[in-house]
C-alpha cells in the first residue's frame, strides 16, 4: 500500500458487499468452500454465493451455536466452511463453540461478523457488536481480520480462505462507507499498512475508522502536524514491527476503532507498545457503554468515532506530549 | 466377533478405565465404566476403521461429545491398537497425549474431536454427516452423549438440523444412566419424555440394553431404519457398571476409586 499518495473515496460501498463478492470469487476458485447461513443470508450478502452455488450453501436456521460447531465438523471432514451472520450473534452467541469446537480443534473455518460496530445505526444496542474483537482476539489459534473498506473486505475473505489454515474471524460493517483502497490488492495477513507517512504522531485505526484517520491526518497537515496513519486489518496476529516503529519514530499514538475501548485494537496496540517501546497511547472507541438507535453518522459523531474527534485527540496529545 | 469376545473386551476396557483413573488420581469413573459395553461393540464390531491408519479417509467418525468419559475412549483406542496400552497410565498427567478431556492438539491417534464443553458434539457430528453426503462418501457419523448433556439447548438445535438435512448417516447414542453430578437427572432437570422429544424433532428412536452386547450390536446394525431420517439409540446403562460398590451412585460420577482398593475392584470385575 502506498504511503505517499493521497487516498480518495472511489465511491461509497458497504463492506458487506465486498465480503459477499470476495466469498463468491473464492468459491469459484475452490469447490471445497461452502457457506452456512442463519436466516439473514441476503442481509450479509452471502446470497451472492448461494445463488451461484446453491448446492454448497447450507441453511442452519436461527441457531448460531449449532452452525458454529457444524462448521468444525465440516472442516474436520475436508470442507472450508464460511459461517456468516451479524457479529452480535456469530461471535457473542457462539463464544463457547468458537472456543472449543473451532479454535481448540484448530480447524480452518471462517466466521463472518457482519453489521459490526455502532454504524449499524437504527437497530440499536442489541445489534451493534462492539465486543467481538475482544472475544475473538483472546482465543488461541484465531486470526482476526478487520478490513478497512469494501475492496479490502473482498480481499480479506480470499486471504482467509487461501492464505490461512486455521480459524479466522472477519469483521465488517453494514453501512455504505468510503471505498478507497485500490481494487485487487491482495491482503497480507498480519501485515499492517502505512497509508500516510508522518513523524509527529501516529493514528492506528481499523475498519471504517481508517478512512476517518486519513481525513484527520490530511487536515492536521495544513497546520504542519504530520500524522502517520496505519491501517491494522489483522488485529491478530498483530504487526508488532509497524507499531514499535511508529512508537519509536513518532513517540505518540492515537488508536481508532468502532469497538469498546477495552480489549480491542487500542488494547492490542498498547500491549505491543507497553512491552516494547512505551509511549503515550490514546484509545478512541466506545467508552465502555452500549450503543443506541440513531442514524449511523449521528452515532459516530456522538461517540467520537469521527475524523473531527481524531483530529482533536491528536492536537491534545501534541500539546501534552511535546 | 462373538458376544463372548466382546464381553471380554468390555472387561479389559473396564480394567484400564479403573487403572488409568486410579493412576491419574482424578477422572470420571462412573460414566466411563457404564459405557464400556457400548464402546466394546462400537470399536470391535460396528465402526469401520483402521487403527494402523487413523486418518484413513473412509473411516467412520466417532465423536465423543461427553469428553469427561475420555478414559473409556482411550482404553478402547489402545485395545484396538491405536497406541500401546501402557500409555493409558499417563492419563491426565503433564505432557501426556491423554488429556483429561480429549484434545487433538496432543496428537493421540484415533481422537476425532477435542471436546468437553457439553452440548457441542452433536453439532460437530451433523457437520461431519452433512460433509459425507456433500462429498458423496459413505462413512457414517456416531456421536456419544450423556443424558444430562441433553439439558443443553444446543443439542436440540443440532437435532433439528440433522432431521432437516436428512442425515440418515448419523447415529447418536445417549448414555441413559439417569445420573449426573448433582444427583438423579429427574431431580436436576427432567429430560423425559425423551423418546417423544427426539421423535418430535424428526428422529428415529431405538432403545437397547447398554450392557447386552448382542442387543447393542443388533440395534446399531439396524440403523438407519428409515432413509433420510437420523437415528438416536437410547442405551440404558448403569453408571459404574462392573463395580458393585459404586454402581448407580451419583457420588461416583466424577471421582476415582481409592488406589489401595483398586486390585480388589479389578478382581471383582472379572469374578463378580
Description:
The complex is a heterodimer of chains A (322) and B (272). Chain A is α/β, with parallel strands linked by helices. Chain A has two domains: 12-178, Rossmann fold (3-Layer(aba) Sandwich), CATH 3.40.50.970; 193-320, Rossmann fold (3-Layer(aba) Sandwich), CATH 3.40.50.920. Chain A contains twelve helices and 14 strands. In chain A, helix 9 crosses helix 10. The longest helix of chain A is centred in the N-terminal third of the chain and has 15 residues, at 15-29. Chain A is globular and about 60 Å long. Chain B is an alpha/beta fold and 272 residues long. Chain B is 39% helix and 12% strand. Chain B has helices at 3-24, 29-34, 36-46, 70-80, 121-134, 153-164, 185-188, 194-200, 213-222, 262-271; strands at 61-64, 141-146, 170-176, 179-180, 183-184, 204-209, 231-236. The longest helix of chain B is centred in the first third of the chain and has 22 residues, at 3-24.
What can be said about this structure in brief?
Chain A has helices spanning 15-29, 47-52, 64-76, 87-90, 95-104, 132-137, 150-162, 209-222, 240-250, 265-276, 296-302, 307-320, and strands at 12-14, 33-37, 57-59, 80-86, 110-114, 143-145, 168-171, 176-178, 193-196, 201-205, 227-231, 234-236, 253-260, 281-286. Chain A is α/β, with parallel strands linked by helices. Chain A folds into 2 domains: 12-178, Thiamin diphosphate (ThDP)-binding fold, Pyr/PP domains (Rossmann fold, 3-Layer(aba) Sandwich); 193-320, Rossmann fold, CATH 3.40.50.920.
Strand order of the largest sheet of chain A: 3-2-4-5-7-6-12
- Strand neighbour order, sheet with most strands of chain B: 1-2-3-7-6
Strand runs of chain B, count: 7
Please state the structural category of chain A: alpha/beta
CATH class of the largest domain in chain A: Alpha Beta
Q: Write the element-wise H/E pattern of chain A from the N-terminal end onward.
A: EHEHEHEHHEHEHEEEEHEEHEHEHH
Number of domains of chain B: 1
Full CATH superfamily name of the largest domain in chain A: Thiamin diphosphate (ThDP)-binding fold, Pyr/PP domains
Main beta-sheet strand count, sense and barrel state of chain B: 5 strands, parallel
Structural class of the helices, strands and pairings of chain B?
A: alpha/beta
